[in-house]
Amino acid sequence: MSVPNAPSVLFTPMNIGSVTVPNRFVRSATHEFMAEEDGRMTKRHLELFGGLAEGEVGLIISGHAYVNRRGIASPGQTGIYDDRLVEHMRGIPEAVHRTPAKIFLQIAHAGRQTKERLIGGTPVAPSAVPDPVFKVVPREMTPEEIRGLIRDFVQAARRALEAGFDGVQIHAAHGYLLSSFLSPHTNRRTDEWGGTAENRARVVVEILRGIRDALGRAFPVIIKINSTDFLPTGLTLAEAIAAARILEPLGLDAVEVSGGMTESGRGSVWPGLRTEDEEGYFVGPASEFKAALKIPVIGLGGNRTFSVMERFVREGRVDFISLSRPFVREPDLVRRFRLGLSTRSGCVSCNKCFNPRGLACGDLKKHPSPG
Ligand SMILES: Cc1cc2nc3c(=O)[nH]c(=O)nc-3n(C[C@H](O)[C@H](O)[C@H](O)COP(=O)(O)O)c2cc1C
To answer: Parallel, antiparallel, or unpaired for β 167-172 and 102-108?
Structure first.
């Protein structure tokens, strides 16, 4: 097998803010289920991220790390809510930096998409809109709590920098807290944090401003944002693009475009992809972000086939290609592409990689050969 049209644009470097990513492949944030109970990263993270870097992923984005203890989404999740967690992280960027790869920490708060027993209280949200899946009626955040949340995100970014990460990704997708602020379905506030699309974006704007004030312009900050919530009363693509346009001049360095929230029954992790036509399922909306912005855009969703990904970038629809599940199965996929040993990922999108004992491919034993 050989890679068509090599050398490919996918193996050319590109900057995200001040850092040079050696190629166009991004490991999209993927919850590893590998942290200690208090959120500490472990040796398993080190092995995982070191392996992805050896496998030539250009930019690795960690699974979502909660910025305060009320923001945990599920057990085994990484925390970044306290300075003492930093020392347990340092080895990870160090391992990644033995290669040309870069690593960003994804910083997050679960909002209402969590369990009361996990956080030891009532989950918080912009408004008290019940979540039918988590069976949670969240408590509306006070303006003081929102200010506290902004500080927590800024502190989390500072800790990521101190741990040696190359940047952070603000998780504002998938119905988690920041996503629920952006969405008119879950944000029914009438104060400065709700109502107009601009007001709904304010919390993210203030987080970015806060990070820039604390850490300067050089530290890369990117965002993962929904293009749609898949709800008739949810965020629109135009509103999401408008939010990105507010953030861009404030120092946002890139956008990764996703979609979905738990309540809609449709998230970002679509099962059962089979044909090339189904690949890149958020690349369409991502290309609309690209048309509206100058910063790099990362195209996500079911990317599996080298030639399809290459076309997305060559045609200027997106700048980077991100993948999650394929790298669970094949951490060396990018190297295999470069060497012409694979033309597509063997990932069958079965979603058995969601493993509370630790991220692992549930299909690999059954079907060991890459498809
Ligand atoms: C096991 C698993 C964990 C995930 N954890 C996160 C996460 O922590 N943060 C996030 O933004 N997306 C998360 N996602 C979504 C992925 O980043 C990605 O958006 C989605 O899987 C689609 O990409 P893919 O088709 O390449 O898998 C997760 C997906 C999987 C399968």
So the answer is: parallel
Residue type, 130: P
Residue with tokens 């590109």: 14
pLDDT, tens digit (0-9, with 9 covering 90-100), for 68-101: 999 999 999 999 999 999 999 999 999 999 999 9
Per-residue pLDDT, averaged over 224-240, amounts to 98
Task: Give the residue, 272 or 256, on which the prediction is more confident.
Answer: 256
Using alpha carbons only, how large is the chain's radius of gyration in Å? 19
The count of other CB atoms within 10 Å of the CB of residue 154 is 22
Ligand 1 atom nearest the C-alpha of 327 is 26
Q: Which amino acid is at 73?
A: A
Substitution site in 25, 26, 30 for ligand 1 pocket (most atoms within 8 Å of beta carbon): 30
Q: What is the pTM of this model?
A: 0.97
Which domains are assigned to the chain?
9-338 (3.20.20.70)
Instruction: Please work out whether the CB of residue 350 comes within 6 Å of at least one atom of ligand 1.
Output: no
Q: What tokens were used for 358?
A: 């630790």
> How many Å apart are CA 278 and CA 270, to the nearest integer?
10
Burial of 267 (0-12, 13-18, 19+ CB in 10 A): middle
* 66 is a catalytic site residue: no
Q: State whether the beta carbon of 63 lies less than 6 angstroms from ligand 1.
A: yes
